[in-house]
Design goal:
globular, BirA Bifunctional Protein, domain 2, alpha+beta, 9-stranded mixed β-sheet
């Protein structure tokens, strides 16, 4: 199944069970929201999860584009992305957690063809304030899935230091080549696929918990991960979500075509794809806030690109317009290749100028090529020089 088929199947499944489909919003939260970007499908629904009446009712489903800077250091592996799409379902004071779990397994098994023997569940194992979520654990056991109880770090969800929170029960899929081994807590080949959060409590500034007057259920599942698992693909980059980019980038920049070392190509692909979506939602590179995240993405992509071939004038101006328009279509954006190209090239020029100054700065301040952690931090924070490029510049400087 391709991405469009999976989106349609997911929506139809929940609509047949009384859910109304909501439109996914921008990456940019509404004014007054303290976060830089929308990080989950539930984020725009926070007031309704807290008890406000939703105009479409108490059962909802939808697809939301999200951005998580917390995953930036992990991008390049087979499953993490900066910008992604999240499928979600919500019960606003209607059905409970066990019903959500039953919906979840039915959809994965009967409609997406995921075999139960390749699935594993986790549930909240309790902490000093709240006991283990035995209801969720027993429900998974009744459904025939093995279940593992994990702690607060893994299976408790909260919307910040205060506000709605509750136990999180998750479905994992086996991505290894042989029969399943271990559990999600012991073997990283178990891939986190679908979170089912039961919002039962309100956390107060002093850390205490009180029951919510409206108990709700929030679920979220990354589209790209589901496409990967449903098609037994080796990574999210081997799905149709990245069809506009791969094999376009290796054809454009053959230096990146190294199947034995795919991480640089994956980072460049993720960061440029994410940048296209962020630009499409109206963000432009600046030194602070959302614009700084975009700047970091673009400069991270350029760092990997220029490291792959330091002697060639590789440029983002070579990107074909098709990757922009097809990515915009995936994320339901208008897509303006000329505008995106203008933003990319302007930031590339700034970064080239920064590197030129950086070479002179390094030659003057660190002629020996020996830098401490404090030096790297200073160069990054004061001059905007990434550690990777500083290292490469020093290596070439000392060699030549």
């Amino acid at each position: 199944m391709n991405s469009s088929q999976i989106i349609a199947t997911f929506g139809e499944f929940f609509e047949r069970r009384g859910h109304r489909c909501i439109d996914g919003g921008s990456l940019l939260p509404p004014p007054g929201d303290p976060v830089l970007f929308t990080t989950s499908g539930m984020h725009p629904l926070t007031p309704y999860l807290e008890g406000k009446r939703h105009p479409l009712g108490r059962r909802l489903t939808g697809l939301q584009r999200c951005l998580r800077t917390t995953d930036l250091t992990e991008v390049g592996d087979s499953t993490h992305l900066t910008v992604f799409q999240m499928l979600g379902s919500w019960s606003l004071g209607d059905y409970d957690g066990p019903q959500s779990q039953r919906f979840g397994l039915e959809l994965l098994h009967d409609h997406f063809g995921l075999r139960p023997e390749l699935l594993h569940a986790t549930a909240f194992g309790g902490n000093a304030q709240i006991g283990p979520d035995t209801t969720a654990a027993e429900t998974w056991a009744d459904l025939g899935l093995p279940v593992e109880l994990l702690g607060e770090e893994d299976n408790w969800w909260s919307n910040g230091p205060t506000g709605p929170c509750g136990p999180d029960s998750e479905i994992f899929a086996w991505t290894g080549t042989g029969p399943p081994e271990g559990s999600p807590g012991t073997d990283e080949r178990w891939l986190e696929l679908w979170n089912h959060v039961t919002l039962r409590y309100e956390r107060h500034p002093d850390g205490s918990l009180t029951p919510l007057t409206q108990r709700s259920v929030d679920t979220g599942m990354g589209l790209e991960r589901l496409v990967m698992v449903a098609n037994r693909a080796p990574s999210v980059f081997d799905t149709d979500a990245f069809a506009p980019w791969l094999p376009a980038l290796p054809a454009l920049w053959p230096q990146l075509a190294d199947p034995e070392h795919p991480r640089p190509l994956r980072i460049i692909t993720d960061h440029l794809r994410s940048s296209v979506v962020v630009i499409g939602d109206g963000v432009r590179p600046v030194p602070t806030g959302r614009g700084y995240v975009l700047r970091r993405l673009l400069r991270g992509a350029l760092t990997e690109l220029w490291r792959a071939d330091p002697g060639s004038p590789l440029t983002l101006g070579d990107l074909p317009p098709e990757v922009v328009t097809e990515t915009a279509d995936q994320f339901r954006q208008p897509g303006e290749p000329a505008e995106v190209r203008s933003v990319l090239l302007a930031e590339e020029r700034r970064f080239r100028q920064l590197l030129s100054r950086g070479r002179s700065l390094l030659a003057r301040l660190y002629p020996s090529g020996s830098l401490t952690e404090a030096d790297y931090q200073y160069l990054h924070d004061t001059h905007g020089l990434p550690r990777e490029l500083v290292t490469d510049v020093l290596t070439r400087m000392l060699a030549g």
